[in-house]
User: Fold this.
Amino acid sequence: MGLLDVSNLQVEYESPRGMFKAVDGVSFSIERGEMFGLAGESGCGKSTTAYGISRLLRPPARLAGGSIVFDGKPLTSLTEAEFRPYRWSRISVVLQSAMNNLNPVMRIGNQLTDVILAHGAGVSVRDALRRAEELLALVEMPKEKLASYPHELSGGMRQRVVIAMSLALLPELIIMDEPTTALDVVTQKGIVSRIVELKKELGFSVLFITHDLPLMLEICDRIGIMYAGKMVEVGSAEQLLGGARHPYTQGLLRSFPSLSGPKVRIEGIPGSPPNLVEPPAGCRFQSRCPHATDVCSSLEPSAINDDRGMVACHLYGSGEGNHEAIAASQSR
Ligand code: SF4
Assistant:
């Protein structure tokens, strides 16, 4: 059992066009000390998955099913009060824009010490201040910045403060949703490198979400690829780079330039994701897949787990149902 085990997670949204499942049966696990990436196009459900795990879903979104087990304890059945000891102390979150995490009218030092005092039993103000200085040092910022307001810091520094805040109580899991997306590439590289170093030093696990697949392949131990609310493939960076199996993952990899390998033509993935209010029967990638057959439009592919990771596609596996269905579709 991993540190985090997510099984058959379902998140529903009520929209003017009807109810739809933004996350539909997603399963994965994260080991202790592992950096697990979630990638996919906008709207594929990766951030919604993170919000479901960290209980940050707000109406009209709601957790509709599945289980989330953290360190052997089921989280889905906990009340908000029962979940509170987990928030910040064991599971913390870094959101996309630092300004969404920081109070614009409070000094950085007060915001850091507030988190430490609110969740650390018996901590004195003096100890909290010392800890706040240590936290800024961890993200390579001088302690003098404790006196600053968020608007007095650059975007990169604000995001470093948020990362420092997420580390305040030494959580076992940090969920990072596009933590460097709004930053320039040089700042992004500095922050990402520091996150990787801190993970090694402190031993926490990370659920890292980004649409930047090349970055993810560089820093994550394993990566889950999501499409239209489903997990379609999971593998290590080596497995995906050496031979991604799902046609969607293959298309994503062809959509980015390679910095090291031979020059290849960059190709997008033609078409667009399906309408999730009325998703198609069978595989959700069928309208964009160059390998689609009849069975793909009638039978949803099941997840195949083997020594190359997980893939959900009718092209793979020894699933009896798949072969029977393919044979049946071919005889029609
Ligand atoms: Fe393509 Fe069929 Fe595999 Fe879906 S199940 S990715 S449509 S081959």
Remarks:
- Residues 246-247, 283, 285-286, 289, 291-292, 296, 301, 313-315 surround iron/sulfur cluster (CB under 6 Å).
- Confidence is low (pLDDT under 50) at residues 323-332.
- The CA atoms of residues 29 and 204 lie 15 Å apart.
